[in-house]
Structure formats: structure tokens, C-alpha cells
Amino acid sequence: MEIFNFSENYLEHAADLFTKSYMKARENLNILPIKYEDKNTILTLLQDFYKEYIGVVAVENGEVIGYLTGLPISDFKGSQRGIYCPEWSHAVMYKDRPFVYQELYKEASNMWIQNGCLNHAITIMAHDDEAMNIWFWNGFGLHVVDAVRDLNILPGNFNNDIEIRKFKKEDIEEVVHLYLEYKTYMASSPIYLPLIQVENAEDINQWLENPDNNLWLGLSNGNIIAIMEVSYKQSNDAQILSDDDTVSIGVTYTSENDRGQGITKALLQKVMEEALLKGYKRCAVVFESQNVSGRNFWLKYFKPACYSVVRKVDDRIWNNM
After folding, report:
1. Which residues pair with 283 in a beta bridge?
2. Residue 12: which domain range?
3. Is residue 176 part of a domain?
4. What's the CA gap between 72 and 89, in Å, rounded?
5. How many domains does the structure of the chain reveal?
6. Whose CA is closest to 41, among 240, 248, 312?
7. Residue 167 and residue 291 in one domain
8. What is the pLDDT along the chain (321 residues), one digit of tens a residue?
9. Is 296 helix (H, G, I), strand (E, B) or coil?
10. Residue 10's domain is classified under what CATH number?
11. Is the dihedral of CA 56, 60, 62, 63 positive or negative?
12. Is 167 inside a domain boundary?
């Protein structure tokens, strides 16, 4: 087996490898969009981005058996430069996948470090336990989960005392306060996402100017106690969850003193009812694995589609190079 720098010559081979891997993912989770089984869809992604990515391919007897590429990003997962590998930017189809992935990462990570990228993140399709284990043994830990579900009614009872409705302009002051609560919560233990910027009234109103964005509210006794962002046609989800039949859930938060009343469940049900009426087929969400209350809720109703794992290389390695 030989390792070469990723180039235009390998685009079609890479697209073929990923689509084969994706077909296995859909065997385990058939609610995933079928369009990513089309090699040309993945080929277009690779063609659009490969010049910006840094990576390698594995070749044996003239056949491409694996590839791994990543996008360099400034201030990624901290104040240092990093690399991100989305789920479509890597694949290995070979009898000894651990060995091939190991060799790919050995060569690619050296290139990434030379490029100043110390923080490495990779998204893995959830069906691939073998790949998860490979990255675990390379020092990676779970950070983000992309999950999906159908639009069928949620099981169990609903809290009928909670009012669920969409945002109105006069709600802005209360909503801004909830966004601050949300960001403060996400910066707390054990999540520790730094509170860098908090959405203000202008940010929220500007986001809502897009007709594909909605903000749903949960109210108790006339007070807004919960928010749920919803986006049609666009999302921050994994690529394999991004298509015209998927509605995506963004920031979701319930005031700490009002949790445990089924408010988020009621919001989710209302969102899915509207999405179903609009002709959508699935609902997606992305959440931090360290967000315990969020994780417990989403995994109750959604199935993981992708896991994103992260490794932070000690910056003192520069002293040895």
C-alpha cells in the first residue's frame, strides 16, 4: 500500500468509496436522504472543496482503497488553528480498515501539523462502530452528535397547560434574555462552550427575516420560558442530513426553573406537525455530547446519524519540530 497526496486525479475514486459507505449507513438508518447514494452528488462536493482541503489517499495495486482530507480553519475549537473532516471527506473500503485509516491519519496529521493545525475533528457516520474505535485509539473523543427522526407523533402525553406559538415582534425583550441564559448555560460545567457572543435583538430579527427560519416559543402563565429555532432548506447539520426534505432544529432552551414539564417535547411536536404539513420527511438536530440534559432529551426521540470526535494536539510539540 502507498500513500499519496489527495489531488484531482482521485476525486471519482473518493466519491465511489464514500457512496458505498453511505449505502451501509442507510441500511442501518433508512430515514437518511437517498440522494447521497448518488456518486455524482458526492463528486460535486469533492470537486467544490478539494482545493481547500489537505489530505491523502491510500492506493494498493493501482486501486484507491481509502482517503482522508480536511479543511484548515482558524481558531478552531479554541484559539489555535485546526482541521475539520466532514463525513464525506473520508472513507476506507478494505479488508483491514483499521490499518488503512491508521496510515492515512499518520500521513495526513503530519501535513496538518506542518500547516499549523493542532485541533483535529472528524465526523463519522453513526453506524460505523469500527471507525469510531479507530479514532478513539488515535486520541479522539466525542464532542458533537447529529441525529434524525421521522415526523410521526411523539409517544406519551403532552402538557396541555403550555402555550406553544411562533415569535412575535413584541416578544423580543424576553427572547433576548433567554438567548443570554442559553449561552450562559452552554458555558457552564460540564459543557464549557465559551461565551463569545450573545444574540441581540438585531441579530434575532435579522435571522428571522429569512422566510425559511422560524422561532417557536413555549409560554407558561403568559411568560416565555422556552425557545426552539427551526430552519427549512438550510442547517448546521452534517451534510448527509442536509436536503430539501429535512427540517432542522437549532438553538433550543428552556429556563432552568421550568424544566421537567414537557415543554421541549411540546415544542418539538408542534414543529414536526408544521413540517409534515409542508411536505417534509424528517427532522434533524445537532447537539453537544457534554450537554447532559440536552443529550438525554434528544436521544429519547432521535437516532444518531453522525458522531463528531475531536483531538487536541499539545502545542508544545512545536518545540520538537
Report:
1. 149, 247
2. 2-139
3. yes
4. 13
5. 2
6. 240
7. yes
8. 999 999 999 999 999 999 999 999 999 999 999 999 999 999 999 999 989 999 999 999 999 999 999 999 999 988 899 999 999 999 998 789 999 999 999 999 999 999 999 999 999 999 999 999 999 999 999 999 999 999 999 998 888 888 999 999 999 999 999 999 999 999 999 999 999 888 899 999 999 999 999 999 999 989 999 999 999 977 777 999 998 999 999 999 999 888 888 999 999 999 999 999 999 999 999 999 999 999 999 999 999 999 999 999 988 887 777
9. helix
10. 3.40.630.30
11. negative
12. yes
**Do the strands 119-125 and 54-60 form a parallel or antiparallel pair, or are they unpaired?**
unpaired
Task: Give helix then strand counts, H and E, for the chain.
Answer: 8, 13
Strand partners, 308: 123, 144
CA-CA distances (angstroms) from residue 179 to 185, 228, 250? 10, 11, 12
- On whether both 170 and 210 belong to a single domain, the answer is yes
Are 95 and 200 part of one and the same domain? no
Q: What's the rounded Cα separation, in Å, for the pair 281 and 32?
A: 10
- In this structure, the answer to whether residues 132 and 218 fall within a common structural domain is no
Check whether residue 222 and residue 278 sit in a common domain: yes
Distance CA 217, CA 213 (A): 13
For the full predicted model, state whether its pTM sits above 0.85: yes
Q: Contact 119/82 with Cβ under 8 angstroms?
A: yes
Q: Are residues 199 and 131 in the same domain?
A: no
Which grid cell sits at 299? 436521544
Name all contacts of 250-257 with Cβ < 8 Å and 24+ positions apart.
251/179, 251/182, 251/227, 252/226, 252/227, 252/228, 252/285, 252/294, 253/178, 253/179, 253/181, 253/182, 253/185, 253/226, 253/227, 254/218, 254/225, 254/226, 255/178, 255/181, 255/225, 255/226, 256/181, 256/185
Rounded distance, CA 70 to CA 105, Å?
11
